[in-house]
Specification:
RES domain-containing protein, RES_dom, about 15% helix, 8 strands, alpha+beta, globular
């Protein structure tokens, strides 16, 4: 089983595996309208991924957040190494190069999860979950733990 983590606003704890937030806003690996659950292989990478997308002036008044630990069966994960990705996948802001890269896998439900390098730190990985995959029930979700961002980030 692969272990991964997600930090999210506590008010969304009942919908951790819904992918609704990413569907509304889109992300590096999904276009608007396509649900996706973004997780990281380490808690510290979760923090980095949130901080690079957050206006630092908002941090002192950040709403309560939670840390969620997830376990995914190894056989349900399709791993991509940097040399398998298209040039431009790290573009800031993200472009259609990465946004549509996983669509063939998502539309065919070929994999529940995708392990991809982080654009923030390509030596670590994010695991993206397809919440519409029939195997989503195989993901083990642990109870949320209150998470506070270190004041030194503020």
């Amino acid at each position: 089983m692969a272990i991964c983590y997600r930090i999210q606003k506590s008010k969304h704890n009942s919908g951790t595996l819904s992918g609704i937030g990413a569907s509304i806003t889109g992300g590096r690996w999904n276009p608007v309208g396509t649900p996706m659950v973004y997780t990281s292989t380490t808690v510290s990478l979760c923090v980095l991924e949130i901080l690079v997308h957050t206006d630092k002036s908002l941090l002192p008044n950040f709403p309560p957040h939670s840390l969620i630990k997830l376990e995914i069966p190894d056989e349900c994960i399709r791993e991509f190494h940097p040399d398998e990705l298209l040039p431009g996948w790290t573009s800031i802001p993200p472009t259609d190069v990465s946004r549509f890269f996983l669509m063939p896998y998502l539309t065919t439900n070929s994999s529940l999860a995708f392990k991809v390098p982080s654009a923030v730190n390509p030596y670590e990985y994010n695991i993206l979950l397809n919440p519409e995959h029939p195997d989503i029930g195989k993901v083990i979700e642990y109870p949320p733990i209150a998470f506070k961002f270190d004041q030194r980030f503020m």
